[in-house]
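Two quick folds needed for the group meeting slides. Do the first one here.
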Amino acid sequence: MWKFLPALTLCGLWGCEPPPPPPPPPAARTKSPPPSELPAPPADPADPLFRHVPPNQRVAWQPAFKMAATREETDKKYPLPQNPETIRKVRAARVKFCRDESVGVFEKHGNTAAPWAGKARDAMEAYALSGARMSWPNQGVYYEAFQKALAAVPAACDDPLIRYWLLRHGPGYDSSEATAVAWQGLAENLAKSEYRMIALHAAFNTLSRVLDAAGKAGSKLVPAAVAEAEGRYQRALRVLAANPSPRYWDEVAEVAYLEAGVRSKQGQDGAAAIEAVDARLAAAGAAAWVRHAAKGKSLVVAGWAARGEGTADTVTPEGFRLLGVHMTAARGELDAAWQIDPTRADPARWMLHVARAEGFDRDEMEEWFRRAMEADPDCYMACRLKKSWLTKKWHGTDEDVFSFVDQCFRTGNFYGHLPFVAEFPLMEDLPYKDKEFVQKYSQNPAAWVPLDRVAHAHLAHYPDDRWARTRYAYHALIWKRWRVAEAQFHWLKDKPAPGWFETTADYEQAVQRANRELGGK
């Protein structure tokens, strides 16, 4: 059972209030301001939509479940790094990178005198804030702000980046063959521009969609279209892989790892696909870090694909063998990448997959977790992976998980979504497609409490987060919390965020049901 005590409040993004200084002599003593009047921490330029909440107004969180240790003991033995200076530095660097690759390129090479130039700049600036947010980048207040700014760009705008974004992030985005064909032209225009980083992603996304469309029964895509997409992608990859600047390392490694997955999905042997991608990186002169990181991530995916995510009794002997082979190789690659540059979080984060598969002991797993969070305190996926390692299914206990999700919530890092790890304490996520399980789980009132607290606390800091309000309403319907649902529907009106209600009719029916359950009030 969960219980929350009003006297216990969260530490915010900037940590708990520091201990008070020694009291002054009686004659000089002054009255301390109430918590509601304490000055807010300095604003974070990378997070301008964050709303400071005074300590005495923060959502209380004191679960009554049994934890493995006290909070003080947990924080001391297994720290969750949230250094404020590192947070600001890492976020600022990500925003600068996204800005340099969009509006920075536009200012140097774009049609800055065009009537639409101002609106295009606004969209690019909004992209910089949205793209810098690594956890769930296509949801939330910054992504919505980017979409609004993009929609405001006049139709006459012919900037290749804006035209690509209008398809990639617009309402017509789908996996149809017609869309795949449209991608070809937009990706080609980007390839001819100076938007080189985004051109690489566009070229890969186009190739992925063209291959997918071409593989469907009745496809009218000719081999020449596939060859065109292949050639464009390979050229874009070579351009950035050969660039001596470390600024593109993460981007090239990410796309190369994704390419290996696409090749495998298309029927190529997984190991062969990984080696082929690595050979192309080597031929392009890619940095050693890029090759180690891309190969390590690809091997992790191949290992889990061979094993499957089921319980041990569902895994074949060959599945176990391939898991071991791939994870041993991945461990070497990821360690090599981390040794080259420990300031990048990706190798340490991905090593947590290996830790779960190979059964690292607690201290070794924690060491890699610490490395990931010190490099990027917003690393939501590192927190999810550690939570998975701590479950009884793998290497921990319920008490270990409870201590950790409590720790995640107490960070107050809603920008990085770290508190969301606590929504479903003993699960990675709610298996929404398993209707029977969801119904049974939602009958437990205690299961609603952490979900409610996370949503309530997040919205206190980001009250205009349409995505968060939509998912809050969706969960409230499952738990039959009609007043919560109705309150969110009142705010959302007829514009829910996509992804939760399949159709407009589904959303309207949900609104009507909440109203009906409340007696039409």
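Then this one, please, same format:
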Amino acid sequence: MVIFPSGLQDPSVTLPADCRCVQELDLSSLVQDGGLVIACDSSGTIRAQGSASGTSAVFWARRGDEILVSDRQETLFRRTRPEVSRDELVIRLTEAQMDFPFSEGIIWTGVSMVHPGNWLRITADGRVDEVSWWRTPDPIDAVESLSPVLHDALVEVIDSLVDSTDLLSMDLSGGLDSTTLVYIARQCSMDDINTLFFRTADPANHDHFWSDRAARDVRSTHKICDYVSMMVEENWDRFSEDLFAWMPEGPSDDARYLALADEIGRLYENSKSVAHVNGHGGDELFAAMPAMAWSMAHSHVRHGLRDVFSWSQVNKFRWSATLQHVRRHEGPVSDLLRIARGVSARASDMFVEGARWVPAMRLPKYLTNEARDNFSKRALQYAERADLMLHHDRTSHQVRGATLYHGTLVRRTEQMLPSGSGVRLVSPYLDDRVVAIAMRLRIEDRFRADVIKPLLAAARPENMPIDYFQRHDKGEYSFETFVAFSSSRDRIRSLFSEGSVLVDMGLIDPDVLNQELSAYSPDGLVYEDLLRVEMVERWLRSFSATR
């Protein structure tokens, strides 16, 4: 038996004495640090495995008679020189890229990704298939039983950084997820903690009060950056030309982390080993989810349905809307077929839509009919998959789908870090052990909570006051979207006046695009579309320059 771990702090492996084939291996502990593990046994069978959350993933492709396996799409691209997938490119022009199964799309034709939670099996005669090693836990445990286990798991993740890094850097947004991790780091007796906060220009956003308070409590070296200065729209002169190199997995909304990744790399360019800790995945694991009322109504919890109607009344949802929500019985295939038929405008009542396995998609007006056909084609392809239901409970399905999206986001952001910076990203809430614990929370404890994120509140360290979880406001950054677009409108118009790869491909209508650039969007969604199409256009130009 031979095992090749990559990206691991301790590559030593202890195998059971009677272990003779790769199917018998438990490699879960080896992929916690974001590594790809490849094992080969005497029969010639190869096993390749990444993490269950997708922070590390397995990609593979064929080159003639060869099967190539890597943890980076860029490696396979350089060896097979595939084409850009038109269908996937259209997905990247829309918000669909954030929702499972669209979030698992690959930009390169001929390159495949192993679904996180599965491992890739390659037999000696060249057969390739996937084998499941991780399943979404059932939500059956109470807060009281899970909180000490969750606390210990988070401490274990943070504590492991003490010996493996020279410096600990942490996001400290003022939100619950990052703040909890900072207090845990202090509990772990970490003396030298660097924290990072991004200040918004929105006077209604009070996150800075909570961030400053936590930084004082844990006595961290606290750095404050201007949020707008970290937006990629303000930094295209730095990233546009080499955007393909910065984003080897293709254009995506993850571009918003380009400036942040570059800033972190610059901050610690003289440090040998730095772990930068973030709170990705915390909202979805611990907070309310759109399908929560559906799950409560369909559970066997006493008075569950009564509580749902009482809750909807307090939140001023119509009774008819509540009935529509809880009576929804279609499966994910039905949702995808509905999307493929062109039912793509999001309903105004998101409460009703919230119980869907795959949410309805809002497509930009400037997409051509050909692009819409590409979108429908991809939806139909996904409808043929057998693994669309991540769990039979809709809330668990949504939580699992969201953690997969964040795992992808973290993986892509790590690829943006400057080469040789010595920085690695650590996402404790996406650690497979933490995800498995958090997803066991029963629906009644999530639904009937007296505080925000009840499980995280119960698992918080003793040195963290409970009033963080009793906030009545939550920081958000839509204000910056309006600011960014107001300064971007002329730049986007100028960019497309020079000609366009997307127009030449027949995917966007330049006349409609110009109309949208002059339109007003009260919710800012049209502005997000236009900033997204600019990013995709710049990526395609950068990619074309490398051909």
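Slide caption for protein two: Residues 6-12 have pLDDT under 50 and may be disordered.
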